[in-house]
């Protein structure tokens, strides 16, 4: 393996500013690199849909091992603070930012590994499967890019998403449904000193409703949170007319999550009607639950590659989201693989040279697996 080239590729990719919906430079860089490796690359119009600068990238290349194509994917965007990133290589092999930004190993560690594996296969003229690649925009904004991608283009039925923290050899086989909700409570304004009885206190309605909702971990497979509340005006003498709450529900059961959303909405309606107010609830489902069976071919292939590399295999559930959720919605079964990114979404994020090398070796073995 060309270690220096791998590290250089990682440093070059992380140096590119690519916050959500501003992935133009990253898309251009990846397109140029992939075309040099013999891929046919196309870009969709997802950026226009969201008012961004670039779309999702889809790339394909024929191999010489029989069988359906395999799909490999990462996302192009990086959480903030990300502008002006600089990857610093330390003597012990760790790679960090300079401390003022995230590093961008999420998701450039996996991206660099894919590019290096493809480069080695290309240089060696080695046998490999038919390959398809997807690089999504807006993943950090609840999978916005993959949500609007036209999956009829994809021939693969199995996928590997390089977008997970944890020990190498770890793969997520299960993820939850995520429901984002907004509840607006309407009361009636009145002077709090002269005529409070003429008002309907929207914040009190919201507070009464919240006391009836179980927050935090609910059972073994669901969490509920209300993370933001705003209401009233900046005056102490007015009964607040309106209050708005933002929250989320996560559950490994899609039906359970939908049921909890209906229950929460009903509770707020009951409390609003009791006090003479009203409420409205809006919710979206950016992530839908899925599970891959451990006997699935994509899992068996992953096990074989890990055994070759002497990596302990850990098949785990995750309570986070990834683009695999949208792939699963379109009939593409797959794993989310640990890809040498640690302490992500913080300025303490890091990767290691040895980790990047191992992920590259793993990807290369998956691309060459004939079964």
Structure summary:
By secondary structure, the protein is an alpha+beta fold. The chain is 32% helix and 28% strand.
General description of the model:
The protein is α+β, with helices and mostly antiparallel strands and 371 residues long. It has two domains: 3-175 and 289-368, Zn peptidases (Aminopeptidase, 3-Layer(aba) Sandwich), CATH 3.40.630; 177-287, 2-Layer Sandwich (Alpha-Beta Plaits), CATH 3.30.70.360. Helices cover 32% and strands 28% of the residues. The chain has helices spanning 3-14, 24-36, 46-50, 105-124, 144-147, 202-210, 254-275, 297-308, 324-329, 353-368; strands at 40-43, 57-61, 65-75, 88-89, 94-96, 129-136, 158-164, 170-175, 177-186, 216-218, 222-231, 242-251, 278-287, 290-291, 314-317, 333-338, 350-352. The strands form three sheets. Strands 1, 2, 3, 6, 7, 8, 14, 15 and 16 form a nine-stranded mixed sheet that branches. It has a five-stranded antiparallel sheet with strand order 10-11-12-9-13, covered by helices on one side. A three-stranded antiparallel sheet has the order 4-5-17. A hairpin with a 3-residue loop joins strand 10 (216-218) and strand 11 (222-231). Helix 1 packs across helix 4. The radius of gyration is 24 Å and the shape is elongated.
